[in-house]
Fold:
Amino acid sequence: MSCSSCSSTKSGSPRGCQNNGTCGSDSCNKLTVFDWLENMHPPQGETECPFVEVRFKNSRKEFYRIPKEITPQAGSLVITKVDRGYDLGTVTLAGALVDVQMKRKKTKPDSDKIGTILRLANQEEIDIWQASRSKEAEVQKRARELAIALRLNMKLSDVEFQGDGKKATFYYTADKRVDFRQLIKDMARAFSIRIEMRQIGLRQEASRLGGIGSCGRELCCSTWLSDFRTVNTGAARYQRLSLNPQKLAGQCGRLKCCLNYELEAYRSAIKVFPKTEIKLYTEKGIGVFQKMDIFKGLIWYAYKEDWMTWHKLTLSAVNDIIKKNIAKLKVPSLEAYVEEEVKEGIKIFDSGAGEDSLKRFDPPRRHSKKNKKKRFESKAKK
Structure:
């Protein structure tokens, strides 16, 4: 999925719009939505959903009420009412799935947060909107220069123009409270528009800027993730991950959101395992927990006197030893419960169609008659 400016050139090389998925065409994989009920009509007796979901630049989505005289569909550009002007957005979802989204986000139909769509956007309004969007990079650069001149400890990460081009919202991050009253005066004088400053967190900043994560894919927060749940180091401890900040931190500098994806699976799987502080008492010594493999059902223990030698035990074997220890019985040793590993032959190459040589794709080598004659004469001399 890409917009027209992201397509390839005549030579085949990618052109790229350099907007990191925020070009406004709703086709750069930026919080896109697949409406699988788009061609379905409501059953008899049911009315159409009177609401639609509208996406503005980056991660901002809101619900709006549809007037009776228009029927916007997904992808339509609509004019929404705002204070002292209008804004232009793209309809991302319409129909029955809007009710599902509103319930998921706990938005009631009679809520004051739901706005109203005025009309479908005409070509003149679209041209004004696109002209304002094209100035955002230049305005952001100039605003950063003004903030540096005032020595403000803040980072202007993004700029969003209103659809009519009369107002701009500047998103920034800062560690402490910032007095930007003089900055607003300077920007209003330089750009001749109304200014709004909005502070966001580091996760929201990463979702707006976009990028590629360590997994090689686009950031979850900039493509589909809309709610940012808290992530703590307990999630890494449950999954037995190394507490290395460089590996666990994302581009926002906080713990990666993906640490929560498999956390519930680890929590349910770890319930059958014994607690790590439980020791195994044997005649040879006391076994202390070292590490575990949750999905393979393996636990490693080592004697207190010999920390370097680890013994791999199965979950059933450990539970058996614990039961005997509760009955005040000691097992002979941990080695008696270690299962022998079955070593399989290492295959250097294995194809799906069976053992075959990759040389079959090479063209056959053709030897000239002269070379054959020379080789025959050399063999005859020998």
User: Anything to note?
Assistant: The longest helix spans residues 136-149. DSSP finds eleven helices and twelve strands in the chain. The chain has a mean pLDDT of 82. Residues 273-337 form one domain.
